[in-house]
Design brief:
The complex is a heterodimer of chains A (96) and B (653). Chain A is mostly helical. Chain A contains 3 helices and no strands. Chain B has a two-stranded antiparallel ribbon. Classes of the chains: A mainly alpha (96), B mainly alpha (653). The interface between A and B is medium-sized, with 26 and 31 residues. Chain A: InterPro entries: Mic10.
């Protein structure tokens, strides 16, 4: 039996779909990373603008940060809301 | 040219009369617009006339203003006074005092006329053309415009010829082919109605008739009667009478009664006619109604001919009246004599006939009597003969009957003897057959025992064979049970989920087309045996992880955003945990119950509990639930197969 089992184990294609209990965690991860990236981008843009146009005032940098963070928040919110509904995976859809 | 002159005139006008400008401009514009050749082409010649007139008759005020304005100038003041209709126009258009007004006016009239003609021609041509195009306008044009019909007709004719060149030369009327003379029919020719004349005279005969009415009528039937009489000598007397009678009646009607002498047999009457000029009396024709003899008819005809001859002769002067009357009376006497003779002969003939009748009757009676006697004699004779014949016939028949009876008796006796012989033969045969049967029965009794023995041996063999099959089936079921057990063991003892396709294949092979086993295996989801299923310990372990995640999402509202997720995450940390078989439908209670059920090993109930989750909790626990379902399926299938194996082992006996 022990000899046979490695033979019989055919390379079954594992789906890349995450386990269902990890869905929420994955979303959190994505949200955090996007939050970081977008707020960083916004901040950098704000800094550049403040240097170039606004005589090194502080507020453009904060505004950029706010834009980035807001975008990330919105995206995250959207992803959570979209995933809330019961997924149609594996259900047969009967069309009239 | 005209416009040029106007244009030339304008600046001068403007400079000269600035005070009267508004009125001037009104008047001038009106006039100049009308005179433009581009615009004058549009209206009909009729409207072109008004422009000169309205300027005159528009109103007294306007003309007066024009006059007043023109009076302020020098030369043209007199012009409107001399010729009123063209006055204001000239005043407006020709302000130049240097130019001679008279030739200009003439030329203008000529020009106006020329334009008028041109316009009317154009209008006419346009009308003709449009009437060729539009039917509606065609009707209007031909009806109301003078010579419009001719013009349109001419063009239509041309078009027709162009379209049908073959008939181009022909006029539409029928042509006169050769030089034949024209036939003129006079007006009074032909039939004409006329009232019919009331012709009282129906003249049949020719010749002179003094009084056609009165003479012809008696003559006409008479001649016809005579003709018929001469023709039909063998005609019946009835017919003759019929022919003669009308003449009698007609003569009665026509002749005046006072002048005609009525006689009993013959109607010979001298008739003094009513002719006033001549005293000659017309003789009446003879008519003998009872003259049936052809000879008499002939005589009557002759006499009548004579009478007609005399009547025709007007100059006889009644000379033959007496002679003719005498002849008529004689003739009637002769006729009467003939009738008498006829009657006497008829009477004698009747008497003779009666005598012959009586004679014949007596003879017939005698004959009948004789016939009766003869018939009686013959009847008695025939009766005797009949009796004799009957007796003879009866005797012969009796003899025949006797002989036939004897023959039948003999035949019957012979048949009886034959039957007896046959019966004895049959009895002998039956005896021999029964003897043979007895012998054979004896023999078969022993053979039957031998057969019984052999059959019992065969039964024994069969029993042993069956027993063998029972053993085989038992072995088979044992194999099956072992295989099922091996599958179960493989599933339980795995560290990580492993595929168990090989075990299932072996089980199917052992089952060898058992429908229940194959159905049970088919009911397992292929993903289950291809990927493997977790055992109960793994399931519980995974459930713990899932429960942790589900607990985090336990407080989420519907359609939750980031904020609510964060809130739920934070608040779930401070929730009190439930344990045991908690009551309620909240997520915490469900999780606690599921855990207890899983620890008890009731996977089915646990799966049911988890299936009752809602929203995010359900989404998170979906994979675990499907895993649990697959495990349940496999377990159920294996249970079914094990039960089937046990059933098989029970069914063997």
């Amino acid at each position: 039996m022990a000899d046979e089992t490695p033979k019989t184990t055919a390379p079954i294609p594992r789906t890349t779909r995450p386990l269902s209990e990890a869905l929420l965690n994955e979303k959190w991860d994505r949200c955090a990373s996007s939050f970081l990236i977008r707020s960083g981008l916004g901040l950098s843009f704000g800094v550049v603008f403040s240097v170039l146009l606004f005589k090194r005032r502080a507020w453009p940098a904060f505004v950029g940060l706010g834009f980035g963070a807001g975008r990330a928040w919105e995206e995250c919110d959207n992803s959570f809301k979209r995933a809330a509904g019961p997924s149609k995976d594996g259900l047969r859809v009967i069309r009239p | 040219m005209l416009r040029a002159s106007i244009l030339r005139a304008r600046p001068a006008l403007r400079s000269i009369a600035p005070a009267a400008r508004p009125q001037w401009r009104v008047a001038q514009r009106f006039y100049a617009d009308e005179k433009k050749p581009g615009e004058t082409a549009i209206p009909n010649p009729a409207p072109t006339v008004p422009p000169s007139n309205p300027t005159v008759s528009d109103g007294i005020s306007k003309s007066s203003t024009v006059q007043t304005t023109s009076s302020s100038r020098t030369a043209p003041v007199e012009q409107p006074a001399t010729t009123p209709p063209t006055g204001p126009g000239s005043a407006s258009v020709a302000p130049d005092p240097v130019q001679a007004p008279k030739p200009k006016k003439k030329r203008r009239i000529r020009r106006f006329l020329f334009q008028l003609i041109l316009l009317s021609t154009l209008g006419y041509a346009g009308g003709v053309y449009y009437s060729l195009v539009s039917d509606n306008f065609h009707d209007f044009f031909t009806e109301f415009v003078p010579f419009g019909e001719d013009a349109v007709g001419y063009f239509e004719e041309r078009e027709f010829r162009k379209r049908f060149p073959g008939r181009a030369g022909q006029p539409r009327l029928h042509p006169q082919v050769s030089g034949e003379n024209k036939v003129t029919i006079p007006g009074k020719s032909g039939l004409s109605s006329r009232p019919a004349e009331a012709s009282g005279s129906d003249l049949a005969g020719k010749g002179p008739h003094v009084s056609a009415v009165k003479e012809s009528k008696p003559v006409d039937p008479q001649t016809s009667a005579a003709g018929s009489a001469s023709k039909g000598a063998q005609e019946s007397k009835k017919e003759a009478g019929h022919k003669e009678k009308p003449t009698e009646s007609s003569s009665h009607d026509l002749l005046p009664k006072g002048s005609s002498k009525a006689k009993a047999e013959s109607k010979a009457a001298t008739t003094p006619t009513a002719t006033a000029s001549t005293p000659i009396t017309q003789l009446d024709h003879l008519s003998v109604p009872s003259a049936s003899e052809p000879v008499v008819q002939d005589v009557v005809k002759i006499v009548n001919d004579i009478i007609t001859a005399i009547n025709a002769d007007e100059s006889h002067g009644n000379k033959y009246d007496s002679a003719l009357n005498k002849a008529k009376s004689e003739l009637s006497k002769v006729v009467a004599d003939i009738n008498l003779l006829k009657e006497s002969t008829q009477k004698s003939a009747e008497e003779q006939i009666k005598a012959a009748h009586s004679e014949f009757d007596s003879a017939a009676k005698e004959l009948v009597r004789r016939l009766d006697v003869q018939m009686h004699d013959q009847e008695t004779h025939w009766k005797e003969e009949y009796e004799n014949e009957r007796e003879r016939l009866s005797a012969t028949y009796k003899e025949k009957l006797q002989s036939e009876l004897d023959a039948a008796h003999n035949v019957y006796e012979q048949r009886l003897k034959n039957e007896l012989i046959e019966q004895s033969i049959a009895l002998q045969k039956a005896f021999s057959a029964s003897v043979r049967k007895q012998v054979e029965q004896e023999r078969e009794g022993r053979l039957g025992r031998l057969n019984e023995l052999s059959s019992s041996v065969a039964e024994l063999e069969k029993l042993t064979a069956e027993w063998n099959s029972v053993i085989e089936a038992n072995l088979k079921t044992q194999h099956m049970v072992v295989a099922v057990e091996s599958v179960k063991a493989a599933l339980e003892n795995q560290v990580v989920p492993k595929p168990f396709t090989g075990e299932l294949a072996a089980l199917k092979e052992i089952a060898a087309d058992d429908p229940v086993v194959s159905a049970a295996i088919a009911s397992i989801n292929p993903a289950a045996y291809q990927r493997g299923i977790p055992n109960s310990a793994q399931l519980i372990d995974r459930f713990r992880r899932v429960a942790h995640e589900v607990r985090k999402a336990a407080l989420l509202p519907e359609d939750a955003g980031v904020a609510s997720h964060i809130a739920s995450l934070a608040m779930s940390k401070v929730l009190f945990k439930k344990s045991g078989l908690a009551v309620g439908q909240d997520v915490e209670a469900i999780l606690a119950r599921t855990e207890v059920l899983l620890e008890e090993g009731d996977l089915d109930a646990a799966a049911r509990e988890i299936n009752g989750l809602q929203g995010w909790a359900k989404v998170l626990s979906k994979d675990w639930l499907s895993d649990a379902r697959r495990v349940l399926e496999v377990r159920q299938a294996l249970d079914v197969i094990g039960t089937e194996a046990r059933l098989q082992s029970l069914l063997v006996d």
